[in-house]
Amino acid sequence: MHEVVQPVTSVPAFMEDNSRFSHMAVDVVQGRDMLVHIIYLATDYGTIKKVRAPLAPAASSCLLEEIELFPERRGQPIRSLQILHSQSVLFVGLQEHVAKVPLKRCPFYRTRR
Known about the structure:
Helix content: under 10%
Strand order of the largest sheet: 1-2-3-4
Low-confidence stretches: none
Order of helices and strands: EEEEEEE
Number of strands: 7
Structural class: mainly beta
Largest sheet: 4 strands, antiparallel
Number of domains: 1
Shape: globular
Distance between the termini: 48 Å
């Protein structure tokens, strides 16, 4: 359970300086022309990074969003991540409660007109 996950390719799908990831969940979504893997990574300081996996072996990943569940409780460790596809949500287990995060968070971001 506490072993390092080795990358399938010669480089990891996502790296970030000064960050450690404790849990991971992966969603596969239909893009315009292909299936895209979306990786949810729990950080050691209590946030979730939403990352698009590389589209090709030589390509790089893309950080889409960093989700801060409870800004007032920043630093609370995440104990589990689980995707429930039937409801399109990510369940995040914390020490004292469970948070439900929608996988599609477009309403949180408004388009400028």
